[in-house]
Amino acid sequence: MSAAKRKNGDFLLAVEGLTVSFDGFKAVDDLSFYLDPQEIRVIIGPNGAGKTTVLDLICGKTKATSGSIKFAGKELTKLKEHQIVHAGVGRKFQTPSVFEDLTVFENLEVSYPQGHSVMGALAFKRDLAVVEEVEAVAKKIFLDDLLDQPAALLSHGQKQWLEIGMLLIQKPELIMLDEPVAGMSVAERQKTAELLKMITKDHTVLVIEHDMQFVGDIADRVTVMHQGKVLSEGSIEHVKADPKVIEVYLGH
């Protein structure tokens, strides 16, 4: 049993009673959900349901009005963004933010954890351990043949994979992805599903997505949000058959 399970019931992430108000509007309203270690959870719902705000709250970009976010037994709502990263939470935004002037290898290398502090950056050198880790991650993200390629020359899908690799090399326990397959080809979407299922051997993954085919390919469980609350939760088959979900989301 992992340390996360021992400290916090059976859950790596426990979100309870989470609320955030902007000028009286509750973007997230008394939300609770729980993630197991090595789970792929997908949050779906109509635009404006509060999905991205949930990721903003977990990573500390937005501060909760009330409620609790416990990660591996640690309360995140009191921490700053960089402290949440160091606790083991990684976040990828909708638009890929890779360093286009650097090669694939260099993008992965600059994300290597040793270079993150001032002292670490001063002492950082490209030793065998760094090279081996970069090459291992590049293989996972299907870019091992493109290590010397400038990131600017990658396709949109390859840039998304590179950014996932930049998270993987930091070894977060929880990886959060906002619409990772938006703009991808069918083949790239299939490879991304393969990638996410493979990385759950070592990571827990929380995804926001609209592509229901992709959701069905990857999700262990699905949480459907509507107006800042949980509308339905369960397997993809369960939520697709839920009359409330059909009415507010799938029917459109």
Ends apart, CA distance between termini: 42 Å
Following the backbone from N to C, one meets helices and strands in this order, namely HEEEHEEHEHHHHEHEHEEHH
Major sheet: arrangement of strands:
6-7-8-3-9-10
Largest sheet: 6 strands, mixed
The SS-based structural class is: alpha/beta
Instruction: Please name the fourth-level CATH homologous superfamily.
Output: P-loop containing nucleotide triphosphate hydrolases
What's the shape? globular
CATH architecture: 3-Layer(aba) Sandwich
Overall mean pLDDT = 89
CATH class: Alpha Beta
Tell me the number of structural domains: 1
Strand content: 15-25%
What's the number of helices? 11
Alpha-carbon Rg, integer: 18 Å
Number of strands: 10
Low-pLDDT windows of residues? 1-8, 115-121
**What share of the residues lie within helices?**
25-40%
Do you know the CATH topology?
Answer: Rossmann fold
